[in-house]
Amino acid sequence: MRLLLVWILSAIALLVVAYLYPGVQVQDWQAAAVAALVLGLVNTLVKPILVILTLPVTILTLGLFLLVINALCFWAVANLVPGFHVTGFWAAMLGAILYSVITWALSQLLPDKK
């Protein structure tokens, strides 16, 4: 049940990001739901591999390269999911940061796992 709630909150966060920032566009709630699902899968499966492969650069930049990895994952999902569009890399960077902050804030509304 919690997984379904997190997925719904992630879709809502994408809609809020699209509302707040014109560089990110979501066509409708169905596109937001699919994009949230794909983004969750990319963050679970692909992102850890990218983090390991880019570990030397991440260490040299004191962890700031992780923001680039987040932006690239966000941008890649926008290229994969119809109805979800990001205008460029910097839009993906700001969109990914906003998405992370909003998702964190919304996840604070969920009860603790027990």
Beginning-to-end CA distance, first to last residue? 13 Å
Count of helical stretches: 6
| Gross geometry | globular
Cα-atom radius of gyration: 14 Å
User: Per DSSP, what share of the residues sits in E-state strands of 2 or more residues?
Assistant: 5-15%
| Rounded mean pLDDT score | 94
User: Strand count, sense and closure of the main sheet?
Assistant: 2 strands, antiparallel
Overview of this structure, please?
- The protein has 114 residues and is mainly α.
- It is built from 6 helices and 2 strands; from the N terminus they run H-E-H-H-H-H-E-H.
- Strands 1-2 form a two-stranded antiparallel ribbon.
- Helix 1 crosses helix 6.
- The longest helix is centred in the N-terminal third of the chain and has 19 residues.
- It is globular.
- It starts with a helix and ends in a 7-residue tail after the last helix.
